[in-house]
Amino acid sequence: MSERGALISDEMLQASMAKKGPKQYTLWMDLEFCVGCHACTMACKAENNTPVGIDYNRVLEIEEGEFRDTKEKPNVRVYFVSMPCMHCRKPACMAVCPVEAITKRIEDGIVLINRDRCIGCRSCEGACPFGHPRFNAAAKVMEKCTLCVHRIAKGLRPACVDTCIARTRFFGEANDLASLVRQKNAEKITLEFIGIKSATDPSVIYTI
Q1: Would residue 124 count as lying in a domain?
Q2: Of 105, 137, 164, 196, which is the most exposed, with the fewest CB atoms less than 10 Å away?
Q3: Is 125 inside a domain boundary?
């Protein structure tokens, strides 16, 4: 990318929130500039008050390349890959839930777990190709990232987006984000580059 990050204006976000009818809210992760500070993980824990051992937003450290000859320039790179819920268009977690505790909202595409209906069977944990749903042993229910749906209802961005110190995370409607990715000439990638294949059509966008 020719410039650092991207600017999604408040006007664009508010216009998206005002749109009626089905849409898909999601995140754009610009891996080129992520520094692996884990601020997004900590912001998520603070916002959602998750217990020890349950993180809705994990950050993976991926090493690429090799450095075998000390006389040559090192050909190595480290990427920090943030892994929130993908809010898939075809959620595998929802398909396997035996009590229909998992739903995908028509109005914004956000996938949620109803804690009052969840029986803690952990079927969703095994079905999710990204290993996202987490079992809360104390409450005996499954939990996951909600895209901070409570903040979105107030016209705010998810906590992880506002906290990102390197401005590598962006929130908005999927089509708006995809348009910005094209404008920035960013190289869009899938998580197959870290060995994850999925037929669930994840909504989160990654560029590198």
Answers
A1: yes
A2: 137
A3: yes
Tell me the pLDDT tens digit for each residue of 48-95. 999 998 999 999 999 888 888 888 888 888 999 999 999 999 999 999
Q: How many domains does the chain have?
A: 1
Q: Which of 173, 198, 168 is nearest to 186 (CA)?
A: 168
Instruction: Give the predicted TM-score (pTM) of the model.
Output: 0.88
Secondary structure of residue 110 in the 3-state scheme: coil
Angle (CA) 140 55 25, round 5°: 100
In a domain, 4, yes or no: no
CATH of the domain at 79: 3.30.70.20
Least Cα distance to 111 among 131, 134, 93, 130 occurs for: 93
Range of the domain at 91: 10-16+23-207
Q: Which of 30, 135, 143 is closest to 85 using CA atoms?
A: 143
Q: For the segment 141-175, what is each residue's pLDDT rounded down to a tens digit?
A: 999 999 999 999 998 999 999 999 999 999 999 99
DSSP result, 155-182: T---HHHHH-TT--EEEEEHHHHHHHHH
